[in-house]
Design a protein that fits this description.
Blueprint (H helix, E strand, L loop, with lengths): L1 H10 L23 E6 L6 H12 L3 H14 L1 E7 L1 H17 L5 E6 L2
Antiparallel strand pairs: 1-2, 1-3
Helix pairs in contact: 2-3
The structure holds L-tyrosinamide.
Keywords: Hydrolase, Protease
Function: Involved in the modulation of the specificity of the ClpAP-mediated ATP-dependent protein degradation.
GO molecular function, one term: peptidase activity
């Protein structure tokens, strides 16, 4: 595409005093928006439960799960992953459903990335 246009300009016979100006158009690749999945702190959900959630639904190691859980515990919130809308929505639903079934008030939400 780009090369075709360049070739056409290069092939154009130059008459005296004429310059060929090559204009570049940036190819705009459309990427789907990404969503951060956030885990929120609360005073009641056991730490081990949160660690289990992180291992089970976000596929992180035990050590990383403990790290993320402690960040949420200390700071109030942490990003646990960045996904497409559909995947993020599924993760949030899985976590919320699992927390509810185990009668823990754990909250998980999603937020569009800037
Ligand atoms: N703050 C909770 C406690 O002290 C632990 C906790 C961590 C809860 C992370 C939720 O997302 C959370 N038992």
């Amino acid at each position: 595409m780009q090369t075709d246009r360049l070739r056409m300009m290069a092939d154009k016979p130059k008459t005296e005093g004429e310059t060929n100006v090559i204009t570049k158009t940036k190819p705009k690749t459309q990427r789907p928006p990404l969503y951060k999945v956030l885990l929120l702190n609360d005073d009641y959900t056991p730490m081990e439960f949160v660690v289990h959630v992180l291992e089970r639904f976000f596929g992180v190691s035990h050590a990383h799960a403990v790290e993320i859980m402690l960040t949420v515990h200390k700071k109030g919130v942490a990003v646990v992953g960045v996904f497409s809308y559909e995947i993020a929505e599924t993760k949030v639903a899985q976590v919320m459903d699992f927390a509810r079934r185990n009668q823990h008030p754990l909250q998980c939400t999603m937020e569009k990335e800037d």
